[in-house]
Amino acid sequence: PSIIQENFNVNKDRQSIMGHSMGGHGALISALKNPGKYRSVSAFAPVCNPSKTPDIQFILKCYFGDDIKTMEEWDATCLVTNYKGPELNILIHQGKNDQYKEQLKLDNFASACEKAGITVSINVEDRYDHGFYFISSFIEQHFHHHSKFLCDSQ
């Protein structure tokens, strides 16, 4: 963010964040760990519950060892259950034919949001997988989503 703030005419008090797959998870946890920093967050096919996903859990163990509590501190589904901050304005798209959908665990995140009273707009799109064609098909919706919270009318 400092490179952007130093080189472009931006308002540092009006930020949003988005990402795809593991980057989508990064966008979610960045917003959840920094209440109020981002006005909106969106993700394409985000990894939502890595501490409960065996393939990804293996990677987390390389970073955190076997400490499940520490893993959960970096897990969007676990973080959203205790979120205490301003509205997050979350938008998520996932392809119905995503080859990684079992690892992404979007349903776990949706359930955790519902239990925590966090509003999230989730769109599961027919005939799309995890790839960049999927992103290019829906990126405009994400730009519009963020513009609602970043433009001067706010």
From TrEMBL:
Name the InterPro entries on file.
AB_hydrolase_fold, Esterase-like, S-formylglutathione_hydrol
The catalytic site is made up of 21, 98, 130
Keyword set for this entry? Hydrolase, Serine esterase
Highest taxon of source? Eukaryota
* EC code(s) of this entry: 3.1.2.12
Q: Which GO terms describe its biological process?
A: formaldehyde catabolic process
The molecular function GO annotations come to: carboxylic ester hydrolase activity; S-formylglutathione hydrolase activity
Residue ranges that the Swiss-Prot or TrEMBL entry lists as coiled coil: none
Enzyme class comes to hydrolase
Which Pfam families does this entry report, sorted A to Z?
Esterase (PF00756)
Q: Among the entry's GO cellular component annotations, what is one?
A: cytosol
Q: What role does this protein play?
A: Serine hydrolase involved in the detoxification of formaldehyde.
Q: Which family does it belong to?
A: Belongs to the esterase D family.
Full protein name: S-formylglutathione hydrolase
Gene expressing this chain: Esd_4
